[in-house]
Design goal:
- The chain is α/β, with parallel strands linked by helices and about 450 residues long.
- It has two domains: about 120 residues, Urease, subunit C, domain 1 (Roll); about 300 residues, TIM Barrel (Alpha-Beta Barrel).
- The protein contains 16 helices and 18 strands.
- The strands form two sheets. Strands 6, 7, 8, 9, 10, 11, 12, 13, 14 and 15 form a ten-stranded mixed sheet that branches. Strands 1, 2, 3, 4, 5, 16, 17 and 18 form an eight-stranded mixed sheet that branches.
- Helix 8 packs parallel to helix 10 and helix 13 packs across helix 14.
- The chain is globular, with a radius of gyration of 22 Å.
- The N terminus is likely disordered.
Length: about 450
């Protein structure tokens, strides 16, 4: 066994026995994770006593342990996961890390994400000058962080007095940065999309205050330039049905879709109003049923963000502004969409405080199960395979399968028995590199302080 392989074996052995881990985190050429119960992210039943062979940053083979026991690769590091649960790396499908940019804060939260099993995150528009550098550093392993896949934002000119725009526009006039553009009928859309693409963005986020014909043109041009389109469920004044007709890949925020069924829809993002939940909670809403049928025909995903509505209610109870949507309503709409065959991605659009040991994605998974009626296996699929689909990366991640990136998370307890057992992370593996939970340095209040 080589020196590197020996040190990795010592490190991984320490993870599982509670001893001190080696300080050198470099992965072995080949690592075999043996005797694991594999929950592969597809929603299939768990497979017991499995072996996963990792070669470099890729999964080389997934097989029954008995089938590979006599043909283990020479010189491989062996990791015994007997009694452990092996899942694909988790994906947060809705997050922000640079509004406003604060490198210390972002790195602290992303460090917690990675040591909690999150290996990829969909960033829903920020100051992409900062995000691009964080994404580069994360990709090559300079910082402990999930990989970041991000969008540039398009909105109507009337949106750009929003204070968040000012926070991400230092040095440029709001709406003129390539990462956050004001769009109207006179915009050169091929150039606007090309500028967005030049930031390294994988998608255009269609945000607010845009008419339906312009949303359709933006979507068509983004597709021509091979970018995804991620849209709010309502883009104000454009109602959800017209947003869906334009054909984005993912729509965000389940409650925005309810505006399709109200009599007076807000005409701008700034005029959002509270939604009466009565017509949605009593029974299957026929307007929403039609909307979800259209989404399913388009193969569109829903980024439900239940945790946002829970947080909104908490702020209202603490004396903040009234919530425009209740958690019960958001969960009812998410459940109806799920029953209609819409794939639901697990996204948070927020995070927990410095003292919390785990990030907000774990709250989102619990809400999907306890409020929207998902099984634990369905919730895990939302945070793995569906999350990968939401970023257009399902050929690379989201399931445990040969050829995909070696993005894995090891749990001490069975998450299918109780979704709360997701909070038993022992180790994360990202691109073949091990990050033992016992090495996690907790986030501090000072790290989260705003510049």
């Amino acid at each position: 066994m080589t020196r590197v392989a020996t040190m990795v074996a010592m490190m991984v052995g320490a993870i599982l026995t509670g001893g001190a881990a080696a300080s050198d985190p470099a992965p072995a050429t080949t690592t075999v994770y043996r005797h694991a119960t594999v929950i592969d992210g597809t929603g299939a039943a768990p497979a017991r006593d499995m072996a996963v062979i990792v070669r470099g940053d890729r999964i080389g083979q997934v097989a029954r342990d008995a089938d590979i026991a006599r043909v283990l690769p020479a010189g491989a590091t062996i990791v015994d996961l007997r009694g452990r649960y092996l899942l694909p790396g988790l994906i947060d499908s809705h997050q922000h890390v640079a509004t406003p940019p604060n490198r210390r804060r972002a790195e602290a939260l992303m460090r917690r994400d990675l040591y909690s099993g999150i290996t990829a995150t969909r960033i829903m528009a920020d100051d992409l000058r900062a995000v691009a550098e964080l994404a580069r550093a994360a990709h090559v392993g300079e910082i402990a962080s999930p990989d970041l896949v991000y969008a540039a934002l398009f909105a109507g000119p009337s949106f750009f007095d929003d204070p968040r725009v000012l926070a991400v526009s230092a040095g440029v006039k709001p709406g003129e940065g390539a990462w956050m553009q004001a769009i109207d009928d006179n915009t050169d859309l091929p150039l606007a999309v090309a500028r967005a693409r030049g930031t390294g963005a994988s998608a255009i986020k269609v945000y607010a205050n845009l008419p339906a014909p312009l949303i359709a043109r933006i979507t068509a041009e983004a597709r021509r330039q091979k970018m995804q389109v991620w849209a709010h469920g309502m883009v104000f004044p454009t109602p959800p049905a017209d947003v869906i007709a334009a054909g984005p890949d993912v729509v965000s925020h389940s409650c925005y879709l309810a505006y399709q069924a109200v009599h007076q829809r807000p005409q701008s993002y700034q005029q959002r109003v509270a939604i009466d939940p009565a017509q949605f909670l009593a029974a299957r809403n026929p307007v929403m049923a039609s909307l979800f049928d259209d989404m399913r025909r388009h193969g569109m995903l829903l980024d439900a963000t239940l945790r946002v509505y829970q947080e909104g209610e908490a702020r209202a109870r603490a004396g903040g502004p009234p919530a425009y949507c209740s958690l019960d309503l958001a969960a009812a709409l998410t459940a109806q969409a799920h029953r209609a065959g819409i794939e639901i991605a697990a996204g948070t659009d927020g995070d927990t405080g410095a003292r919390a040991p785990y990030p907000g994605l774990f709250d989102e998974l619990e809400l999907l199960v306890r409020k929207a009626g998902f099984t634990p296996a369905q919730a895990i699929r939302s945070a793995t395979l569906v999350g990968a689909k939401s970023m257009g990366r399902d050929s690379e991640m989201g399931t445990i399968a040969a050829g995909k990136l070696a993005n894995l998370v090891v749990l001490a307890r069975d998450p299918l028995a109780d979704i709360a057992n997701m909070r038993s992370v022992v180790m994360t593996v990202k691109r073949g590199r091990a990050y033992p939970r016992e090495e996690f340095r907790a986030v501090t209040e000072e790290e989260l302080a705003r510049d």
